[in-house]
Every structure is written in structure tokens, then in C-alpha cells.
Amino acid sequence: MQKVIQRLNGHLLFSRINHNLPSINTIRLTNTKNDLKEHRARVMARGLPEKKPLPGVKSIILVASGKGGVGKTTTAVNLACAMKVIEPDKEIGLLDADVFGPSVPLMMNITGEPMLNDDNLIEPILNYGVKCMSMGLLVSGENAVVWRGLMVMQALDRLTRHVAWGPLDCLVVDTPPGTGDTHLSLAQNLPIDGALIVTTPQSAALQVTKRGVNMFEKLKVPIIGLVENMSHALCTECGTVNYVFGNETKRTADEMRLEIIESFEVDQNMSECINSGKPAIYALPDSIHAEKYRHLANKVFKYIDDKEKEQVKAT
Ligand SMILES: Nc1ncnc2c1ncn2[C@@H]1O[C@H](COP(=O)(O)OP(=O)(O)OP(=O)(O)O)[C@@H](O)[C@H]1O
Ligand SMILES: [Mg+2]
Questions:
Q1: What start-end ranges are recorded for coiled-coil regions in this protein (predicted)?
Q2: Same domain for 132 and 99
Q3: Residue 62, CB-side half-sphere exposure with 13 Å CA sphere
Q4: Could you tell me the distance, in angstroms and rounded to a whole number, from the CA of residue 71 to the centre of ligand 1?
Q5: Torsion over CA of 93, 77, 231 and 267, rounded to 10 degrees?
Q6: What stretches of 143-190 show up as alpha helix (H) in DSSP?
Q7: pLDDT tens profile 253-303
Q8: Are 127 and 93 in contact (CB under 8 A)?
Q9: 183 Cβ below 6 A of ligand 1
Q10: Is the beta carbon of 68 within 6 A of some atom in ligand 1?
Q11: What is the value of pTM for the model shown?
Q12: Residues whose beta carbons lie less than 5 angstroms from ion ligand 2
């Protein structure tokens, strides 16, 4: 495993990650019945990991969905950029927490190996005024990442606590599909202010979305609302609305008592923009999509503001 990691990036940071992992021999040695009992007791006594804020980061918003390919990264990228557009004086960050399939570098048009600063922290890469960090910047392009749970958690720790994020008003976190190690690790270690749940309108997607919502409820992460993506397609000739993927989102949202904050139709221009590293918010600022992302960004700012006010009241 050590060789794999070193070959993947040849970077001191990640050889250090590996040094923290127990060797197979160590695992075998401690794997007797009594040792196991003691180990379990020690882990239970520790309880859940303490949620520690990220230095200099005021708020953290997750963009998530149980389902893959529904537009989480598209939403996270456009949201982060829209937040910067409507509040240029605020510092916005974008963390790509999808360590297996990072797509933020492509969609934000960022490349290059990040530098370490004097405090040994990784400097985020800036584009469109947004500070970005992604495993895609630390591992070369076509290499597949084959990591187990513990290593994913350590990689996330590097991407969160070993990056010079501060000062930031808001860190937007793009998450991978599913309800796995990444979500658990983020929710248990970071003070998440809220999650936006992205879904498409098919029953199959909504069913998985519900699972995602349940997971966040269990992890006590507040849900800001739903973002419906690829809600419908407009005929470019006659303007007819086609519900290509069905129209079930409203019913599911009502069942979960969640607001649909925005609905984005399927749009070829939007797809072309994001896949060429020019988010619609910049490439097509007058489009309906850009307007909707600005609305979404406003909603998120308001949510953060209201939450801060509530916290001040409570103290
Ligand atoms: N409203 C839309 N109209 C047209 N294409 C879209 C729309 N939203 C997203 N796409 C396209 O769908 C594809 C998947 O989007 P994206 O990568 O954001 O999904 P994801 O949920 O992050 O996927 P994954 O689960 O693999 O991380 C991208 O190529 C993107 O350009
Ligand atoms: Mg993605």
C-alpha cells in the first residue's frame, strides 16, 4: 500500500499519512480476544470524536445526495462561485471531498501542484475568486485511488485541517455519492452548519435521496433544503415542458418536510460550460440558470445569517 501511495503522488504529505497506518503485523498482534475487548472498551470510552472548527472558517455547508451523477459537483461549483459573485467581499472556499472521483479541478479549471506555506499547510488554489482544494490536485489525473476507510478519513483530515483555508466566510463542501465513510467522517469531525441535498426527479433517485436525508438527520446535520436538478427539459422549438425523468420531487419533499429551494432544468449549455471549466454563473451570467444559482446563494447566506443570530441569542 505504501508503494501505491508513493507512486500515486510522490508527495511527502501522503507518505506521512501512510506512516500513521498500523502495519498488518501490528493488527494481528493485537487481535486476541482480550485485547479486542480492551480495545473496544477504550473506543467506547472515547465516545464520538470531538467536532473541532476549522481555524478561520466561519461556516461549512455540504452539498450532498445519496445518488450519483445527479449534479452535486455542478451545484457545489456554481453555488460557491455565485456566493462570491453576490458578496465579493466575502471569502468563499470549495472543498472537493470526493477523494475517489474528484471533479472540482475540471469544473473550476484548476491545475497544478499546490504549495506548502511556512506553517506546513497546503495553500488552496484560487480561481473565480474561490479558494479550492481537491484530491485531484494531489494525485495525478488518470490514477485510480484505491483506499480503504481509514485512509479516506486521513485523506479528508489532510484536505480539511492541513489546508490554509482561513480566513473564510463559508466553505462549500462537495461530497461523493452514497452514504459512506466520507459523510460520516465529515459530519463527526466538522461543525457542519447545514446540508443542501441535490436530487433528480425520478423515483429511483428520490428513494436514495431519502436515505441520504435520514443519514444526515441521524448525524444531526441540519438540512437547508432540496435542490432539484434536471427537473425537466424544454423543447427548444415549441417551448413544451417535458418531464423526462418524472415529476415526483414535490411529493417526496412534502413527505420529508423539506423545501425545494431551486429547480434546474436539463440544459445543454450548462453542461458544456461546467465541463469546460467555466461555471454557468460566469459563462452565462444572464441565463435563467445563473439567476437561479444567485437565488440559491442568497438563500444559503440568509440561512447562515439566521443561524448566527440564533446562536448569539442562545448565548
Ligand atoms: N441541469 C443540468 N443540465 C444538463 N447537464 C447537467 C445538469 N446538471 C448536471 N449536468 C451534467 O451532468 C453530469 C453529472 O453532473 P455532476 O458531476 O455535477 O454530478 P455529481 O452528482 O457530482 O456526480 P458524482 O456522483 O459522480 O459525483 C455532468 O456532466 C454535468 O455537466
Ligand atoms: Mg461529483
A1: none
A2: yes
A3: 27
A4: 4
A5: 160
A6: 149-161, 181-189
A7: 999 999 999 999 999 999 999 999 999 999 999 999 999 999 999 999 999
A8: no
A9: no
A10: yes
A11: 0.85
A12: 72-73
